[in-house]
Amino acid sequence: MVIRFKLPTMGTILLVLLVGLFSAGTASADGIAHIHPHPRMLSLVQQQPLVLEYHNGALLKGNYSLTLLWYGSFSPAQRAIIVDFFNSLSTPIPTAGKKVPPTVASWWRTTESYKSGATAISVGRQVLMDRYPLGKTLTPRNIRLLATPGRHKNIITVVLTAADVSVEGFCMSSCGSHGSARLPWSKTRGARFPYIWVGNSATQCPGQCAWPFHRPIYGPQSPPLVAPNRDVGIDGMVINLATLVAGTVTNPYDQGFFQGPKEAPLEAVSACTGMFGSGAFPGYPGNVLTDPVTKASYNAVGIRLRKYLLPAMWNPKTSQCATLGGAHLLIRGELCEASWPRLESETDQALKRKGQHTLKRDAKDGSVPRPKTARTREYGKGEGVRGIGRWAPSPSMAVEPVGHLT
Ligand SMILES: *[C@@H]1O[C@H](CO)[C@@H](O)[C@H](O)[C@H]1NC(C)=O
């Protein structure tokens, strides 16, 4: 499926405006009642109970390692943000009796309720392709060819394209996609393998693919949030990767959990587009935590106490989009921070040491390891590649049908 954003039609703009007007304290998707300053026209914004149906096919359960293909230039600091995110999915944070905010691992644990059984994720092989072996303009077929070589058993391959790479459909209609392709018949009898692609939108379309860290280009505007790792493009990629990894394990081959047509499914996280905290409504990501010093917005911590902002995920047990933290996050950031000790991640400490305790992007640390050239032999046809797009997020828009990436 493709992470797809929709350019709003006049109708959606109107709806969004209405919703914006009337939903200052909307009922949140976590189903917990809120105290509202004034009565609202609930009928305008109330959501249908959301049900992702199970289509009786395979899910990815058990141990999976991620092969990361870095296409184009990424700094070590940028790669660390994403690698730490992935390695946080299945690594509980030892809390030693301390109160900590929700963790990335607690977010991921919701996937265990899709049928039953955990999916443990870790980062495996990484390939740097910083010499752009296929150039700076890629097609979906190029992405599939990049993803095909190498081992695939219990592996999800993730292609990450740098900010200066244009991919057909990227920023026009999508922020990334996941799908599957077949291996050559001779060796594997055409076994399928899952893969994901996400692009860095920092320079091409941060308003579409890095919201809420950048102003949306259309629709209701609220001030952008400060990206938790001070990198709008990479923190935006984390949101899209979170969406697609959850979609991959719960609907790897179009027969898992989704709502709507299989060519344009709403999956675990894409069904909850635009929601990050309680009280989210179109154009407003919801109540999340704010670091009092850096002003970074986040709702989960991972390994090395790195902060992340993760999207809501549909919970099969409640048939609701669950935002992180539930009742705790109903209180605005500052209050939550007051009851949690301020968490200083390694990034915070490093910035402090450098005397840069501000909102600067991580410096590009010079040296990049030697590139390995990707093999680009042609293999079987891709199938079922879908994307998700995130235009500035609106649950109401999320139910609109979206099309094939290819
Ligand atoms: C997954 O890995 C863990 C630890 O490495 C191991 O204990 C467990 O048996 C593995 N599970 C499966 C299904 O292979």
Automatic annotation (TrEMBL):
Where can this protein be found?
Answer: Secreted, Extracellular space, Apoplast
Instruction: List GO terms (cellular component aspect).
Output: apoplast
Residues spanning the membrane: none
Entries under InterPro entries matching the protein:
EXORDIUM-like (IPR006766)
Q: Does the keyword Secreted apply?
A: yes
Keywords for this entry? Answer: Apoplast, Secreted, Signal
| Pfam families named in the record | Phi_1
* Leader peptide range in chain numbering: 1-29
Q: Where is this region: Disordered?
A: 347-393
Composition bias, Basic and acidic residues: 375-384
Protein family: Belongs to the EXORDIUM family.
**Name of the protein:** Uncharacterized protein
Source species of the chain: Colocasia esculenta (Wild taro)
